[in-house]
Structure formats: C-alpha cells, structure tokens
Amino acid sequence: MSAEALSPVTSTTSGIDAEQFRAIFRAHPAGVAVVTLHDGHRPVGFTATSVISVSAEPPLVAFSVSTGSSSWPALSASRQVVINFLADDQASLSARFAASGVDRFADGGWRPLPSGVPVLDGCSGWIEAAIHSRLPAADSRIVLVEAMAAWGTGRQPLVYRDRSYHKLIEYEI
C-alpha cells in the first residue's frame, strides 16, 4: 500500500459545502446494517449505512465510522466484527443502535457466535469478519474487514433514504 493511501483525508478543494454534500447523500438510498462486536466485557454495536463490498476474492467489506462515536474506542481495539444486514421490518432495531446513551442490547434479540461476537436475530443476513485495517479519513475511519463466515435468509433489506426507512419493491423492465 502506498504512503499516499495511508495519509488521512482532512480537507477538500472542491466548491461543495458540507450542507450540499449531505443533501446529495440524503437522496441516495443505502442498505442498513448494524455492526456488532464484543469489547471483552460487553457487546457493542452501531447502525451503519456505509457498508460496501470491496472484493469477492478475497472477500473484503468496508464501512466507515466516526471517531467521535461511542462505539469507536471498542472498535479501535477489536479484532472481529459482525455486519448484520437488517431486514425491512427492523427499522426500530436500526433506530435503537443509532441512539446515544442507551443499552442497545438490553431488549435481547441477539446471541453470541462461538467467537463471542454478537449476531442479531431476524436479519436478512450477516457476515462475521476479521478486521484487516482502519484507514483515517477526516474525523472518521474506513474499516476494512475480511469475511470469515456469512449467512443469509433471502429476506428483503431495510433501506434508508432522506432521513426515513423504506422497503424495496420489485420493478420489472
């Protein structure tokens, strides 16, 4: 990896201001996931709409997280995560894992995998992954992980767009 790839992204020379940038991404739909991990004492998790497939060979996935997130200290030290892809009836679960100052696991609906990392019940699928790297990007980190196990149900995914949740409908061409 080049030194340039490891340099943090801290500023921009574009003419787009932050509000314009946010507006563009509010209009862009994204699948909803909850990233879970175990910090050695308790389960930790947060909602993520930034999950992307990077490569199938090897199976790499990435997501971003703010270093100001309450989950960042645990994630910065963790070696494994589970990316739980939420089903279209799990909007309340997404909201719970996006909320601050609550015990996100108190209502149950999860179980530990043999690795100890929590997996959420009822998801459309999940990927258990080993953390490969954490790349600095402004006040966030792009976390690159390698999938070790995956499971899917075929359930419809939860989608987030313009500050609200949506279900997909089939569209035939």
TrEMBL record:
Any one Gene Ontology BP term: pyrimidine nucleobase catabolic process
Keywords: Oxidoreductase
A UniProt-annotated Pfam family: Flavin_Reduct
GO terms assigned for molecular function: FMN binding; riboflavin reductase (NADPH) activity
N-terminal signal peptide: none
Top-level division of the source organism's lineage: Bacteria
Residue ranges of domain Flavin reductase like in the record: 25-167
Keyword check for Isomerase: no
SMART domains the record matches: Flavin_Reduct
PANTHER family: FLAVIN REDUCTASE (PTHR30466), FMN REDUCTASE (NADH) RUTF (PTHR30466:SF1)
Name of the featured protein: Flavin reductase family protein
Organism: Candidatus Avipropionibacterium avicola
